[in-house]
Specification:
This is Flowering-promoting factor 1-like protein 1. The protein contains two helices and eight strands, in the order E-E-E-E-H-E-E-E-H-E. With 104 residues, it is of the alpha+beta class. About 5% of the residues have low confidence.
């Protein structure tokens, strides 16, 4: 994740995205069996269901998936616009054979 650490007036440090031309490429989640870029939670949900993942409704603020065969849990923000590379890498780690993070 590219950016610059900035001190705010209240003394808190935060990471600010670098909006230069060279850093304008965004990470995308790729479903490798069909080379589809995941563009919505509906599409992601269909792919995860086909891999044996089920919805988990414990937390209403998150979209969560789990597998009965293991203890893994995928937790995503409710809005797709808040879906970041850290969430993508979590999905890739738990489904190495079917997903990849790419720069587009």
């Amino acid at each position: 994740m590219a950016g610059v650490w900035v001190f705010k007036k209240n003394g808190v440090v935060c990471l600010v995205d670098n909006q230069t031309e060279e850093h304008s490429r965004r990470k995308k989640l790729l479903y490798t069996p069909t080379n589809e870029v995941i563009t919505s939670y509906a599409l992601l949900e269909r792919k995860l269901f086909s891999l044996g993942w089920e919805r988990y409704y414990e937390d209403p603020d998150l979209l969560q998936f789990h597998k009965r065969s293991c203890i893994d849990l995928i937790s995503l923000p409710r809005e797709f616009s808040r879906f970041r590379s850290m969430h993508m890498y979590d999905i890739v780690l738990k489904n190495r054979e079917c997903f990849r993070v790419v720069d587009l």
